[in-house]
Write a structure and sequence with these properties.
The structure is a single chain. The chain has 16 helices and 20 strands. The protein has 535 residues and is of the alpha+beta class. The chain has three domains: 6-156, Phosphorylase Kinase, domain 1; 160-349, Transferase(Phosphotransferase), domain 1, CATH 1.10.510; 363-506, TATA-Binding Protein (2-Layer Sandwich). Strands 14, 15, 16, 17, 18, 19 and 20 form a seven-stranded mixed beta sheet that branches. Strands 3-4-5-6-8-7 form a six-stranded antiparallel beta sheet. Helix 5 runs antiparallel to helix 7 (257-272) and helix 7 (257-272) runs antiparallel to helix 10 (309-318). The radius of gyration is 24 Å and the shape is globular.
Length: 535
């Protein structure tokens, strides 16, 4: 039987499966016959996402071994990410459950094995840390059933995603952009040094800790190489459209310089606030000038920006069409632009806190328009059918900030005269125009799914709540999941514009800083299998 995770004598986290099989063989086992009335067996043809379509419930404690499960931090085709605590401890972790069902494909097995292997190999301040993992973990469903899953215990990055900062504050000023790019490249250097190619770098996979330091995350599409010399990856189209290097777009062999290309796209978005092109193909009107080395024509297509001249040249070198002409990672780190001023840790936290408050304040509508809209919203709450549908005497639940992971850039206070149900109902109507909604009224939670024109799925989650320190004052926080930067940005901006008049202002949640230095997975691997190279 798998060992139970527990705090050791010196506060370190011990976990192990004690099994001799290789990781890939473990994750390939699929459904395990777990004795439970609600077990998902091979005869239950359900999609992965459907397995996790369970209504959130408050005031109920669920546990996995010694872990107490908290709120949902994110959902995806792979499964679910939960906030979790060790029993008897207030230190939070991110618990990533990857569900193994009858649709558990060979690709899923490889991706999960890759993520575990990659995270075990890399130890760097700018890469998310894997604290522990279980290859066969029973995930408890609300109905009492069990879903067999792979569990990754990760450090909690309470600052959200780099995407969130870009979403709310648009482009970054040059020093801030350089600070994050340097952290990104230093983290990537550690990844490459261990023979790992990430292959899916994008702002959504760049997480921020409580001090807003960047950490590379999500190694599900990574590949590992053993040995020395130039490693050539097989021709497989992977990654996210818009960040894929030309050689991947053309389905040709590629090396880890494909990660440099993706970093160039991220750097451009940080500075300009939008992607440089749609796809890295010579047929793309925006990328063609780079492919044909007509760089002046490329820059004429984009808005002028007051930045150091060496920055533009560095971008052209990172986004080069030919892999052999693209900058190496060391060349990027040694470049003139990368070695100019950056923020230290204290300055970074100060700058980011102020930046969010300033950007959120700009979203407020003018006083006249807001007053008229507020009046219309109050009138809506008095409509007979609305009163029948909602109990306006109910208020959102009170949450404990020490046990919650509120998104620092996605939380707003609601106008006192507007009931939270009014806001959620309007959001419900907006999402229903183009998608599907799940509205959990008693918990003041709404979830919606929309398919963009690119066929990518945008998931939106909204939650209303109160704080014990502010009485009946109500707040709303948002979460979004989508790989399409512009599609998500444009749609969600329309939602915020429609709801802005219901907000009193931004509620800036300073992310918490957590210390995981006492946990070292290297001390806990004696009984675990060696990493598997999946080529």
């Amino acid at each position: 039987m798998a060992a139970q995770p527990e705090l050791g004598d010196e506060g370190t986290l011990d976990i192990g499966d004690g099994l001799a099989d290789e990781i890939l063989n473990h994750v390939a086992k699929g459904v395990v016959d777990i004795a439970s009335s609600g077990d998902f067996g091979g005869t239950t043809p359900c999609a992965v996402s459907a397995q996790y379509e369970e209504p959130p419930m408050l005031g109920e404690e669920r546990t996995v071994d010694n872990w107490v499960l908290g709120e949902t931090l994110g959902k995806g085709a792979y499964g679910i990410v939960k906030l979790g605590y060790m029993k008897g401890s207030n230190r939070p972790f991110a618990l990533k459950f990857m569900h193994k069902d009858n649709k558990w494909s060979e690709r899923d097995k490889i991706q999960v094995a890759n993520e575990i292997n990659c995270l075990r190999k890399v130890n760097h301040p700018n890469v998310t840390r894997l604290m522990a993992y279980r290859l066969n973990c029973p995930y408890p469903k609300r109905d009492g059933g069990i879903v067999n899953s792979v569990l990754l215990v990760m450090e909690l990055c309470s600052g959200g995603e780099l995407f969130d900062i870009l979403f709310y504050t648009k482009q970054l000023e040059e020093t801030l952009a350089r600070t994050y790019m340097k952290q990104l490249m230093q983290g990537l250097a550690a990844v490459h040094a261990m023979g790992v190619t990430h292959r899916d770098l994008k702002p959504q996979n760049c997480l921020l800790d409580g001090n807003y330091n960047l950490k590379i995350a999500d190694f599900g599409l990574s590949d590992i190489f053993e040995g020395e010399g130039l490693n050539i990856l097989k021709t497989t189209i992977i990654g996210t459209k818009g960040y894929r290097a030309p050689e991947i777009v053309l389905n040709r062999k590629y090396t880890n310089v494909c990660d440099i290309f993706a970093c160039g796209v991220i750097m451009f978005i940080c500075l300009w606030g939008y992607p440089p092109f749609e796809t890295a193909n010579a047929s793309d009107n925006w990328y063609r000038p780079i492919a044909t080395k007509k760089h002046k024509r490329f820059w004429k297509k984009h808005k002028p920006l007051d930045i150091h001249s060496s920055c533009k040249q560095l971008l052209m070198d990172m986004l080069a069409y030919q892999p052999s002409e693209r900058s190496t990672l060391q060349a990027v780190l040694d470049s003139e632009w990368m070695n100019m001023d950056i923020y230290d840790s204290g300055e970074l936290r100060e700058v980011m806190s102020a930046r969010h408050k300033e950007a959120s304040a700009k979203k407020k509508n003018d006083a006249t328009k807001q007053a008229n809209l507020n009046e219309s919203m109050v009138n809506r709450a008095l409509e007979a059918d609305f009163v029948c549908k909602f109990d306006l005497e109910m208020l959102p639940p009170i949450i404990d900030l020490s046990r919650e992971a509120l998104p620092p850039f996605d939380t707003f206070s609601i106008q006192s005269e507007i009931h939270p149900y009014v806001v959620l109902d309007k959001l419900h109507d907006k999402i229903k125009e183009n998608g599907a909604c799940r509205f959990y009224q008693d918990q003041f939670i709404l979830e919606g799914d929309l398919q963009l024109a690119t066929e990518e799925l945008l998931n939106i989650r909204a939650k209303c709540f109160r704080l014990s320190t502010t009485g009946n004052k109500c707040y709303i926080s948002f979460g979004r999941t989508c790989s399409n930067f512009l599609g998500c940005y444009n749609y969600f901006q329309t939602i915020l514009t429609d709801l802005a008049h219901t907000f009193e202002g931004p509620y800036h949640v300073e992310p918490q800083v957590y210390d995981y230095s006492d946990i070292n997975i290297d001390d806990n691997l004696e009984t675990l299998p060696e990493a598997v190279a999946v080529n």
